[in-house]
Amino acid sequence: MAAETFSIQVCYASDAVQFLRELQVPVGTTLEQAIALSGVLQEVPGLDLSQLQTGIYAKKKPLDTVLRAHDRIELYRPLIADPKNARRRRKNPAPV
């Protein structure tokens, strides 16, 4: 009897790369296992899973989270600028 599987997606985006892969994974697969199966760490040079935040549908989740059918795993890059400071600068530009 074959193991039951379901569909999930793994996605990552940066200025240079857009990665989206749909996978069939067995029941009980963790977020970390699905990322490894997707091949994103091999296809995107320099990605270090220990330095990235991960989540499912924009909600941060730890790597040991067990996946459910149709989950979309997202890898989040560190912020380059604080969004609050960026909004303040746009609202109150420096005098010339």
Automatic annotation (TrEMBL):
Pfam families: Ub-RnfH (PF03658). InterPro entries: Mopterin_synth/thiamin_S_b, RnfH, RnfH_sf. SUPFAM superfamilies: MoaD/ThiS. Belongs to the UPF0125 (RnfH) family. NCBIfam families: PRK01777.1. PANTHER family: UPF0125 PROTEIN RATB. This is UPF0125 protein GJ697_16965. It comes from Duganella alba. The lineage of its organism: Bacteria, Pseudomonadati, Pseudomonadota, Betaproteobacteria, Burkholderiales.
